[in-house]
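Sharing a chain and its predicted structure for anyone who wants a worked example. Both blocks are below, sequence first, tokens second.
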Amino acid sequence: MSAGHHRNRSKISPEELDRLLSLAPVRRALAQPYKVDIRHDVPYVGSSSIDRRTVYLDRHLHSAGQRHGMVWIGAKLTNVRPSIVRHERIEPVIENELGWPYPRAHLVATALEERMVDDPAAYERALRPFIKADEHESLVKVPTDLDIRPVLAAPVDKTLLNRIIKAQDAQKKPGPSVGYVKKSTHVRQRCGICTMFIPPEYGGVRCTAVYDDIVDGGYCRLFEAAGKRQAA
């Protein structure tokens, strides 16, 4: 959820960016398959799923009358999807593989994004109206597996965070309907090792499928071992 978030020009040098992109953990992570989803409301222009298998681009990302991703930059109609996707791919990789905090990873992602455009300043101006709209629009269908670490970074926008969680919870099931209990009696089956578990660093302890408060040691019938399910 970072393309469009705090859009200050990056201070990462081209040499530093090249060095980071050449690191083996970064290259391996970026080589993993992923898909692009344009069906959801994303609080900023773009984001990714917690498992990094999906890049989410806000469904409103297009100039009037154009197909998704096509935006007027000055007098030139430009497809901004590739640059934003690159941003959303590299940012969580830098956070997860190198252990960098969000603000520094965001600078790296912004540097890569700017590298792909002819005029970064004009590009930023063209995206600004979409960013503003995303910050104030009614959030209806927010991905339940959205990586919200940018919103959790200081200063926390509590109003936006609450709107995201409310929109996500509206799509989830109540715990009793799926047999949720706070203490699992199943060997090797508990919330903390389920693919739908949202850990604390992503705003948890929560679940992408159940809206009730959950605990690491809980269990429900939807359990799937982490790593077994592809991103939806």
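Comments welcome. The mean pLDDT is 91.
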